[in-house]
Amino acid sequence: MATSKKSIYSALLANLLIAITKFIAGGISNSAAMVSEGVHSLVDTVNELLLLLGLHKSKKQPDPQHPFGYGKELYFWSFIVSILIFGLGGGISIYQGVTHILHPEELGDPTINYIVLGLSIIFEGTSLIIAFKHFNKERGDTALWDAVIKSKDPSSFLVLFEDAAAVIGLIIVMICIYLGQKFKLPYLDGVASLLVGLLLVFVSAILARESRSLLMGEGISSETKKTITALIEKDSDVVKVMHILSTYQSPNEVVLMLIIAFEQDRDTENINIAIDRIRALVRKEFKLVRFVLVQPENLDHDTYL
Known about the structure:
Layout: H1 2-29, H2 32-57, H3 73-102, H4 111-139, H5 144-150, H6 154-182, H7 187-215, H8 222-232, E1 238-250, E2 253-262, H9 268-285, E3 289-296
Parallel strand pairs: 2-3
Antiparallel strand pairs: 1-2
């Protein structure tokens, strides 16, 4: 999580400085694309602040109102970030783009735009490299897209996607400004803003999908369930693991409920001893599992959960 914060702080600093310079450059050169890029960087700055807020709130200790803790605060604020990217970043850029396509304006001297865009690519690219290294370390040998789907820490892939979208957007704007200036096509400035907006909407849809899944109570993978089942069914007092229910409370915390059929000739004391043994075994093998709830059930009981 410390490395995740490092990537967030680096992105925060880069986006804040870049947003200011983009707005100044857009005002001087009368470029809608640069203004849209400024909005994009400003939204990204706010997003990093919200992610840091979510990380901070997720560390609060459990209390009577939230006995499982506040880990899902991170998922909530990550979802808010994806909405902001869609509404502010994407929406404003698309509006600016359509407006300047319908009513193109002559651009001023683009020199300052090229300077700002070039520096922005360097800064955003550096932030992207930091975020990618952090995510690469976490995913190991897992394919990139599979790692995004399986990741339970949205702060890592949110920053990665934000930075990637920022770099792609900067390249789009630079190309369109150059072509517009070279061929005297001022509407290409609006096209650049529109393309950046559509890119942000696309990215926000992906991030919203993943954040929503975690916020709604995403559980452990089917492979992990099979491993837990095999582990528990080795116990001499267990007949069958009937159901496994789980949810991620935070990237590092899982709540697990096991519905288990025990041998019918075991008395209450033996079952309680077996339950304690199973809890200890699961926690030892799976460090992310903080809470293990075990419900004994008859084998012939029809329970569908």
